[in-house]
Amino acid sequence: MVKFIESELVLLEKEINEMWVLVYSQLDRAGEAVLTLDKELAQQVLVRERRVNAFELKIDSDVEDVIALYNPVAIDLRFVLAMLKINSNLERLGDFAEGIARFVLRCKEPALDPDLLKRLRLEEMIKEVCSMLELTKRALNEESVELATNVFAKDNLLDEINTNATDILADYIKHNPESVYTCLELVSVLRKLERSGDHITNIAEEIVFFIDAKVLKHSGKSKGSREEEL
Fold first, then answer.
1. pLDDT at res. 214
2. CA dihedral sign of residues 33, 191, 148, 123
3. d(Cα 230, Cα 164) in Å, to the nearest integer?
4. Prediction pTM value
5. Distance in angstroms (rounded) separating the CA atoms of residues 120 and 190
6. Is the pLDDT assigned to residue 229 strictly greater than 90?
7. How far apart are CA 206 and CA 217, in angstroms?
8. Contact of 59 with 19, CB cutoff 8 Å
9. Which of 29, 47, 66, 206 could cross-link to 82 by cystine, CB 3.0-4.6 Å?
């Protein structure tokens, strides 16, 4: 029985890693698409979103099978529960990537003002989201609490950029009233990136839970769950 459950857990982790790579690619592509308003790239993100959803359903089903067939306990149970929650958070990240891609497809501007993008620090925000996601993947693969907890501090940068964006966009609209619709849409893009940071923080918490059986959600070390927004 032990050998059987070990092989199932290895397969489950392999699937999670494949889902991780796909979602990282989605966020990276969506980020590049919004910076360049590349509609073809944005369309690719929309098409690949179906793969993200299929992955989530497959992993959910596999988790249910492991629990039903092997009745895992102790660290095996913590691992399975962590994978279930990580899977859910990864799917939400895929949704955010899709939402950003849809902004690109809706946008009627030939290009976004490079000075505005610089002031908004949008590229920096996108890179930070991808960096956080990559860091959490390393934390899981290396079973490193230190790497996982490093994610919490990085999320503060996303909050800072998102908070400052409102005043920057309001000032830009004042001088460029014809861009009001695009600026309002950009508020949503920035919000999706900030929420991505929250979900990656949730993933880091699950990794710590698996490794050290610690539940950080209500300890004050992270923002915890908030109402979902798209």
1. 60
2. positive
3. 20
4. 0.90
5. 9
6. no
7. 9
8. yes
9. 206
